Amino acid sequence: MAKHEPNLDLIFQALSDPTRRAMLAQLGQGAVPVSELARPSGFALPTVMRHLSVLEQAALITTEKTGRTRMCRARPETLAATADWLAEQRAIWEARTDRLEAYVATLMKAQSK
Question: N or C: which end of the chain has fewer CB within 10 A?
Answer without folding.
Answer: C
